[in-house]
Amino acid sequence: MSAHLENLAVLGERVDRLVALCRALQEENRSLRQSQEHLNLERAQLLARNEQARARVEAMIVRLKSLEHNHA
Description:
The chain is mostly helical and 72 residues long.
């Protein structure tokens, strides 16, 4: 095999590895984006639950203060 053909073969192998790496990175990127979307949704749900709990605690405080004033 001539040096030129050997160089082309090496170059072809490098291109194949680069293509495989690009595909792997695309899949990893897709997976990371999907995870990020899931985590963003989970965060939004947790923030909503936290807000609901805060509102319930504030409502209980108001009721307790009202009872305290009624019994005083």
